[in-house]
Amino acid sequence: MTPIALITGSNSGIGLATALYLARRGFTVWATMRNLEKAHELRTIIESEKLPIEIAWLDVCDDDSLKSAVARILQKSGRIDVLVNNAGYGLRGAVEEVALDEWRRQFETNFFGVIRVTQAVLPQMRAQRSGAIVNISSVLGRFAIPFSGPYTASKFALEGLTETLRYELAPWNIKVILIEPGFIATRFQENAQLAQAAQHEDSPYAIFKKASGRRVQRNIYRAAPPERVAETIYRAIMHPHPKLRYAVGRDARLVLPLRRFLPEGLFERVLKKQLGL
């Protein structure tokens, strides 16, 4: 039986790479996205390689689009074996500068969007007593850096949610997996949004943001390709007993053990030095 995968945020980056990776390995993939006008690259590759990928509109913040997409998938494919919750974006700014409405929009996509899609597919997965849910987190779901508070908080919340789901869904043989990428060579940084107040040149945090931003840019040059994330997802969902967490990228594999084993104060000093603070 051909496995069916639903992936959110598939127009670029990790979502696009995962859709292609799974399709090339025998999955039927439903590549969903909020803006179908951004599907040009994916459509071109599908046509060129004759890949088993369907493109569908799905806005993780819109209940009607979600219901419509899931109904269409179940009607045409009959089941959903893998859900990859990938849709999300980054919001930058000091905690003081980010308006509450901006915080809410960040969580609506990165956290509540995951809940919304997961709740929609779980009845069918429980009925078939199998499936895999993959939540794309970040190394910033395990430790914080300055001026990424909304994004970091949303990923911390996603980590807790995913751990909870792993316990709750075990009786139905549903795998639950966290992917924690470090710097990945996508347009994520370019597409990150800057909080409105943080755009002002007279921000009291401006000098610190510039310093840390320069250090972040240096690390981006060592970013891993998104295909490495896709490969990790594939290995995890195909494993009979996958781990809860998979770090992806050289920086992620380096810093997460440090976060785990170094004393809190020492880790904080190391991170400040790396960020130029």
Task: Outline the structure in words.
With 277 residues, this protein is α/β, with parallel strands linked by helices. It has one domain (4-275): NAD(P)-binding Rossmann-like Domain (Rossmann fold, 3-Layer(aba) Sandwich). Helix content is 51%, strand content 15%. The protein is built from ten helices and nine strands. It has helices spanning 13-23, 40-49, 63-77, 100-128, 149-169, 188-191, 206-220, 226-238, 250-261, 264-275; strands at residues 4-7, 28-33, 53-57, 82-85, 91-92, 131-136, 174-181, 193-194, 245-248. The strands form two sheets. Strands 3-2-1-4-6-7-9 form a seven-stranded parallel β-sheet, with helices on both faces. Strand 2, helix 2 (40-49) and strand 3 (53-57) form a beta-alpha-beta unit. The longest helix is centred in the middle third of the chain and has 29 residues, at 100-128. It is globular. The protein starts with a strand and ends with a helix.
- How many independent structural domains? 1
- Beta-strand content bin: 5-15%
* CATH fold-type name: Rossmann fold
Morphology call: globular
* Rg, alpha carbons: 19 Å
As a percent range, the share of helical residues equals 40-55%
Main features:
277 residues, alpha/beta, Rossmann fold, 7-stranded parallel beta sheet, 10 helices, 51% helix, 15% strand, globular
Short structural description:
This protein is an alpha/beta fold and 277 residues long. The chain contains 10 helices and 9 strands. It has a single domain (4-275), classed as Rossmann fold, CATH 3.40.50.
